[in-house]
């Protein structure tokens, strides 16, 4: 179960490229591409190092104008 204290980190078998605040990720083993918008890109950049969910939430609340309850439900 993932809790607010859980550590999250991007998987090593992925490569990515960022363009205009959006990110494209390629999972090297499966060959599947993923696209992230600006908010997803912010999270992606944060999880390049292990981070607790609470750290990610705090960063999102600092960067974006969103209420904590809305941010927590979305995440």
Layout of helices and strands, plus pairs?
Layout: E1 7-8, E2 14-19, E3 22-27, E4 32-36, H1 38-46, E5 51-52, H2 53-63, H3 68-74
Antiparallel strand pairs: 1-5, 2-3, 3-4
Beta content comes to: 25-35%
**DSSP helix count?**
3
State the separation between the terminal residues, measured CA to CA. 14 Å
Q: Based on the structure, what is the oligomeric state of the protein chains?
A: single chain
Number of strands: 5
Secondary-structure element series: EEEEHEHH
Q: From the alpha-carbon coordinates, what is the Rg to the nearest angstrom?
A: 13 Å
Strand order of the largest sheet: 2-3-4
Low-confidence stretches: none
Average pLDDT = 92
Main β sheet profile: 3 strands, antiparallel
Q: How many structural domains does the protein architecture include?
A: 1
Class of secondary structure makeup: alpha+beta
Helix content: 25-40%
Shape: globular
